[in-house]
Write a structure and sequence with these properties.
340 residues, 18 strands, Immunoglobulin-like, 8 helices, 28% helix, alpha/beta, eight-stranded mixed beta barrel, TIM Barrel
Length: 340
Amino acid sequence: MFKKQLTLYITIIALIVLIIVSYLYSKSNVKSPIYIHDERFENAIIAEGIDVSYYQGEDIDWDAIKDDGIDFVMIRCAYRGSESGELEIDKYYKENLDNAIKSDLMVGAYIYSQAITEEEAIEEANFLLALVEDKKITMPLVIDYEIYEDGRLDKAIQNKDLNKNTITDICLAFCKVIENNGYESMVYGNRNFLIKSHDTNRLEKETTIWMANYTNQTNYGGDYSIWQYTSLGLVSGLDGNVDKNFWYIDKDDPVQNVDDNKTDINECSIKPDDDSYLYLGREIKPQVICEHNGELLIENEDYYISYINNTSSGEGQIILKGIGNYTGRTILSFNIHSLF
């Protein structure tokens, strides 16, 4: 009798170990190997994210999304009607913002633009700023500038009311308002529209670019910080397809606009509670002590803390973004070891 029980216990333990090993293996291979990153990003930290809007519905399990290896989300908060020209709020923007932040994802926001004047772009920037006020925004605020066939922007371009210079002026007018309010700005566009209709040299000097090109290896030669590589992504916690993106983070220059009137977070002394952790099936969230000239900084008052690449074994990152009297962004790496 005892031998039978012992055999049963051993079998159960072996099955549990097999399940855990299979789970950890699948988690460590969350990023598909078929996507080839440009050699310029050889030393960059790469985070994977999604972008969502009303079309993804309201039943989103954000914890499951984070557990599936997704580190950031760009959320549509509003849009301008392609025919009416009226500004509208995305039905699920608030729920998406609150729940994504609660699930420890890094969060940015965007407005779908159909602006045909700088004044309209400024109006869109202020509209978006009002919607994200007091939210934990740790990524850029974006003007999603793209053509809707026979929409007001498309017609303005076809009628030659807009050209490369005026289109670029419109986008940068949006970005200026965003940055003057202490946020990072970004312009979204697909590869062909960026090449054909933007002065990308000006954009690259004054903001950052989120470039869409649905392929396994983009040949876009301009600068970009985020690559939207598919609209047919699948993620746990979300029904149907979703846009997926790679975010390339330069470890040596991780933030675009540092306010010279504030203290750069990189000037602070930042100490994590450890630099090595054991992965046990839950995301790893190291705590930090952040000081400046002997004064202890307060989370959510002086800085936001986020984590990426922290749901599987390998190298994870802590990202601190200065807020309030502090500015800039700093990144600390830590090791996550597998149980086996």
